[in-house]
Design goal:
By secondary structure, this protein is an alpha/beta fold. The chain is built from 2 helices and 8 strands; from the N terminus they run βββββββαβα.
């Protein structure tokens, strides 16, 4: 079974197939809004994926909170509904992947489409988060001038 890996230092989301081969790598951020219940970011670790064969559906909208392809949720203890999704493609402040979330990892619609299509034939089992320290999260949004985002 395949897995997703998020590197907070590189701000990259990587899809790895069941043989360990990298299928794709995309820009992604865990810029957590100061009003979110998970602070300041998703802790490094390995998490079981809930939505293994297809993302959990939401209204498809590239500018909506979850983007065009839903959310792939994974189990972060004490935080229900944390996952990977896209959205806010044309937001006025930090459009696309760097746009703040309520705790999730945001990537692009192109990434979510590729992951969605792939997981239909090779289900996801694990989300691995690494390098996701407060410092790396802060560095990611500081580059984009996100003054209101909790570091």
């Amino acid at each position: 079974m395949s897995k997703l890996k998020y590197n907070g230092v590189l701000h990259q989301l990587t899809l790895v197939d069941k043989q360990g081969k990298i299928v794709g790598t995309w820009s992604a951020y865990n810029n957590v809004d100061s009003h979110a219940t998970i602070q300041p970011h998703i802790p490094d670790g390995s998490y079981a994926i809930q939505d293994r064969s297809r993302p959990h559906p939401h209204a498809a909208d590239p500018n909506g909170p979850y983007g065009s392809y839903g959310i792939i949720r994974f189990n972060v203890p004490g935080h229900v509904g944390v996952g990977v999704h896209s959205g806010r493609a044309n937001a006025r402040h930090l459009p696309g992947p760097p746009h703040p979330t309520m705790g999730c990892i945001r990537t692009s619609d192109a990434a979510m489409k590729s992951i969605r299509d792939f997981m239909a034939t090779d289900p996801l089992t694990t989300m691995i988060v690494s390098g996701n320290s407060q410092r790396s999260a802060h560095a990611g949004h500081a580059r984009f001038g996100a003054a209101h985002v909790h570091p």
